Amino acid sequence: MKAALIPPTPALKRYGLGDFHLLLSHLLEDPHYFIHYRRQRDQGAYLVLDNSAHEHGSGDNAMNLAHWARELAAQEVVVPDALEDAEKTVEAALCAHEAWHEGDSEIMVNLDPALMYVPQGRDYQTWRDCLECLVDIHTFAAKRYKIRQDFVIGISKDYETWSGGTLRLLENDIYPLRAHLLQRGIKMQVHLLGWGRYLWRLEEIAATCPWVRSTDSAKPFVYALKNIDLVTAYEEGTTPDYPTRPKNYFRRKMEDAFLDHVALRNVGLFQLLASGQVKAAA
Asked: How many angstroms separate the CA atoms of 150 and 129, rounded?
C-alpha cells in the first residue's frame, strides 16, 4: 500500500515529496504548507485533504474543506466525522452533502473529488452501524447529485485495540462489503488512517490485505524526535512505547544530522512495512 508521510512543516522539502500525500486542513492557513502541497499537486501528486478530526475531535467545516479542495485541486476529500461518535459522524456526512450539493456553491460539483468516509463508534457494533450508514449515504448521494459512485473508507487506528484489531475489521467487515459493492459496479478503496501503536502489525496487514490502497503517519518523525530508531527495535523484536506527538510538532525543525538520520531510517521502515516487504528486503 502507498504510505503518506506527515512530517513537521519545516521538513516538508525533505520529507513532503512524492506522488501521494495526506494534508491536514487546519494547517493550510500556513502559506508555506499550502504552497508546498500546491506545487506537489502541480507536479502530478495525488492529494487527500483530511478534515483534521484527529487533531480537533471533529472534522473541519464542510465548506472550508470545499474551499481548500478547490485551491489545491485536491483529488480526494475526507468527509467530516466525529471521533468515536457514530451519530454525529452520520449527521456530519449528511450535512456535508447538503452544504456541497444543495446550496449555491458549485465547488464540489465542479471539482468532483473522491470522498473518504470514516466510520466511528464507541464500540464495534456502533462502528459497524456507522459504516453501513455512511455507505448508504454515499450511494444515495451519488445517484441524487450525480457525483462519482466510487468512494473511499478510512479505518482509524483508534480501533486497533478491539478484538482482532484492524485486520479483523478489514477481513470480516470491509472485504465482504467491498466485494458486494464491486458486484454492483461500485469500487470502494480503503485507507488506513494512521500507523497503529502495534507497529509491526502493519506488515501483516499489508501482506494479508494487498487490496488496501494506502496509509499515513507522523510516527516516523515523532519517534525520531525522541531519538528512537525503529529499525533497531524491529530487528530486536521490541515495540517502543509511543512518545506521543508533541503539541508543537508541526513547527519542529529536524536539522540535527543524527535526528535526521533516525527519521530517514524510520521513514524507510514505515514504507517497507506498508508494502509488506520488510522480510523480503532484509
From this structure: 20
Among 190, 191, 172, 193, which Cα is nearest to 182's?
190
**Is the Cβ–Cβ distance between 46 and 21 less than 8 Å?**
yes
d(CA 272, CA 280): 9
Instruction: Say whether domain 2-218 belongs to CATH 3.20.20.
Output: yes
What single-letter amino acid sits at 36? H
Evaluated on CA atoms 117, 120, 124, 129, the torsion sign reads negative
Q: Report the length, in residues, of the chain.
A: 282
Nearest Cα neighbor of 216 from 43, 46, 35, 42 is: 46
Average pLDDT, the chain: 95
CA dihedral defined by 158, 141, 213, 51, rounded to 10 degrees? -50
Kindly report the pTM of this predicted structure. Answer: 0.95
Q: Residues 6 or more apart from 146 whose CB is under 8 A from it?
A: none
Q: Residue holding cell 517497507?
A: 272
pLDDT at 139 over 80: yes
* Domain range annotation of the chain: 2-218
How far apart, in Å, do the first and last CA atoms of the chain sit? 19
CA-closest candidate to residue 152, choices 61, 71, 55, 81: 81
Separation CA 164–CA 177 (nearest Å) = 18
